[in-house]
Inverse folding.
């Protein structure tokens, strides 16, 4: 029980906003993070290569090229073996997960900074190889051994220590997985709430109808060419179209009362938006079906073509 309490405290201590932000950035952008850390390493190596004075003469190797080549070979071999073992450790942990193997592996990848450490080590191996070929002097040897080889060993050691601690402390990974599941459920609820709010705002501008056949004097607009999911609708564009279509309908009514009825409720004095939508955000739309219906008929071809062109730019479909 005490072990589980300690694991809980450590888990919550990792939930500090700054720490969580850094961990998330290292996990989501490992290569970019490692590359940023290698920028000062390259700068220091360049300074060491151009330094005219003897650099630590009592420690300087007689043949820097041999030292760099040996360091490069040892570093590459150590990285290959160490990360292969870490991958096996994470894979075995996922198989024994009590909740979800994917969450277990994802947690361990993030908890051990696996991708960041691997990216840093890989870039370090490349730098050692380049330095061995063209930039071999005592200053470069000292800087690269200190910044690349040493830090690679520390990162790999930290990864193994974190992985072993997470796998051996009772309740640690289970609590982490529960937290991940809760976060996933919370994110799903937030996404559903945001989609509901977006649909409420959309249908307030363009009312939802379930069938074009149920709309009196309907002109279907914007037929779907390939099946997709309605991902987003630019509501201000739809609102402007409603205003323009209402205005054009009013002009047509003033010229010819029988030209284009404003809406199904025009006779009762209720002003309804002329444009209605046949789908909601997040819904899949089938091929050949219209996405919008104009509650005016007949409608001039130029008005239909212009409306379809603007609606194509106002909606975003994703492949289902």
């Amino acid at each position: 029980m005490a072990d589980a309490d300690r694991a809980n405290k450590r888990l919550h201590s990792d939930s500090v906003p700054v720490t969580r932000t850094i961990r998330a950035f290292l996990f989501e952008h490992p290569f970019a993070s490692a590359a940023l850390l290698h920028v000062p390493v390259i700068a220091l190596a360049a300074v060491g290569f151009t330094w005219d004075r003897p650099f630590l003469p009592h420690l300087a190797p007689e043949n820097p090229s041999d030292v760099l080549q040996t360091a490069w070979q040892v570093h590459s071999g150590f990285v290959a073996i160490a990360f292969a073992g870490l991958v096996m450790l994470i894979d075995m942990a996922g198989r024994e997960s009590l909740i979800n193997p994917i969450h277990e592996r994802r947690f361990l990848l993030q908890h051990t900074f696996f991708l960041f450490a691997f990216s840093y080590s890989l870039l370090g191996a490349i730098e050692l190889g380049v330095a061995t070929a063209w930039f071999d002097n005592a200053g470069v040897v000292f800087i690269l051994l200190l910044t690349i080889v040493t830090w690679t060993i520390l990162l790999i050691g930290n990864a193994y220590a974190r992985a072993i601690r997470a796998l051996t402390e009772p309740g640690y990974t289970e609590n982490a997985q529960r937290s991940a599941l809760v976060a996933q459920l919370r994110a799903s609820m937030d996404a559903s709430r945001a989609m509901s709010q977006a649909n409420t705002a959309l249908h307030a501008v363009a009312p939802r109808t379930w069938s074009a056949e149920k709309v009196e004097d309907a002109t279907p607009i914007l037929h779907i060419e390939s099946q997709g999911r309605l991902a987003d609708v630019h509501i201000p564009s739809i609102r402007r179209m409603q205003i323009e279509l209402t205005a054009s309908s009013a002009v047509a009514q003033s010229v010819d009362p029988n030209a284009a009825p404003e809406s199904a409720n025009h006779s009762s004095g209720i002003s309804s938006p002329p444009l209605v939508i046949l789908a909601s955000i997040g819904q899949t739309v089938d091929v050949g079906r219209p996405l919008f219906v104009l509650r005016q008929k007949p409608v001039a071809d130029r008005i239909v073509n212009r409306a379809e062109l603007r609606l194509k730019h106002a909606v975003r479909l994703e492949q289902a």
Remarks:
- Residues 206-319 form a domain with the Aldehyde Oxidoreductase; domain 3 fold (CATH 3.90.1170.30).
- Residues 1-16, 259-270 have pLDDT under 50 and may be disordered.
